[in-house]
Amino acid sequence: MEVLISRYHPDKDDEPYMQTFEVDGSQLHSDAMLLELILHLREIDPTLGVRYSCQEGVCGSDALNVNGKNLLSCTTPLKSLKEPIEIRPLPGFPIIKDLIVDLELFYQQYKSVEPFLQSEPLDPQQEHLQTPKQREQLDGKYECILCACCSASCPSFWWNPDLFAGPAALLAAQRFTIDSRDITTIDRLHKLDSPTKTFRCRHIQNCTASCPKGLNPSQAIQSLKNRIVKGH
């Protein structure tokens, strides 16, 4: 099995380069995920930098670009990939080392949309009730694991990560603007009414195609734009 991995150590290398590994597939489980292969390669070369945690598709920390597609290495069956397998860090982010990228701007943009419920002052004697229909509206909006696969697939985010909020952040923004318990919808929409923060999205669908949880950020952003326009 031929595997090409992007290597880059900022203290030693001028730019990233590809390193080739030849792996005996019999050393891996027949139903192995891609992450198992990467960890096997790290045993061969302990200097390989890779980020991972839960290994169950929940934490989102092991997102990579593999054969040109952003995905989670821990939920991608190895047998589903064509050889040679080319493994690169998520595009559009500064590389810290090898397959590890700096997601600082991604998290800043997520924080900027205030992704938390803003409701009436807490009253321990009073629940924040929702009807089943109101709760159902949140489906497909709250399951994001912040893996950054979507934003790393988005040309608008590549070009303006400091200005465009990105698919993950705007998906979260939509989730809270439609939550019946939130009392700041008008203020939220006003803050999002920006040609760069929100309307820079061109709906080319890369974000939706790359989401490992099957979410549809593009649709959520379109709905968000419609609400902003109608608000005026």
3D structure, described in words:
The chain is of the alpha+beta class. It folds into two domains: 2-101, Beta-grasp domain (Ubiquitin-like (UB roll)); 104-231, Alpha-helical ferredoxin (Fumarate Reductase Iron-sulfur Protein, Chain B, domain 2), CATH 1.10.1060.10. It contains eight helices and seven strands; from the N terminus they run E-E-H-E-E-E-E-E-H-H-H-H-H-H-H. A hairpin with a 2-residue loop joins strand 3 and strand 4. The longest helix has 15 residues, at 217-231. It starts with a strand and ends with a helix. InterPro entries: 2Fe-2S_ferredoxin-like_sf, 4Fe4S_Fe-S-bd, 4Fe4S_Fe_S_CS, Beta-grasp_dom_sf, Helical_ferredxn, SDH/FRD_Iron-Sulfur, Succ_DH/fum_Rdtase_Fe-S, Succ_DH/fum_Rdtase_N. Its cofactor is [4Fe-4S] cluster; [2Fe-2S] cluster; [3Fe-4S] cluster. It is an enzyme of class 1 (oxidoreductase).
CATH superfamily of the largest domain: Alpha-helical ferredoxin
| Count of β-strands | 7
Structural class per helix/strand content?
alpha+beta
Unreliably modeled segments: none
Please work out how many helical segments DSSP would assign. 8
- C-alpha end-to-end distance: 57 Å
Q: What is the count of structural domains?
A: 2
Mean pLDDT, nearest integer?
94
Tell me the β content. Answer: 5-15%
CATH architecture of the largest domain: Orthogonal Bundle
Helix content: 25-40%
Main pleated-sheet profile: 5 strands, mixed
CATH structural class of the largest domain: Mainly Alpha
Q: Order of strands across the biggest sheet?
A: 2-1-5-3-4
> What would you report as the Rg, rounded to the nearest angstrom?
20 Å
SSE arrangement, N to C: EEHEEEEEHHHHHHH
Q: Could you say what the CATH topology of the largest domain is called?
A: Fumarate Reductase Iron-sulfur Protein, Chain B, domain 2
Shape: elongated
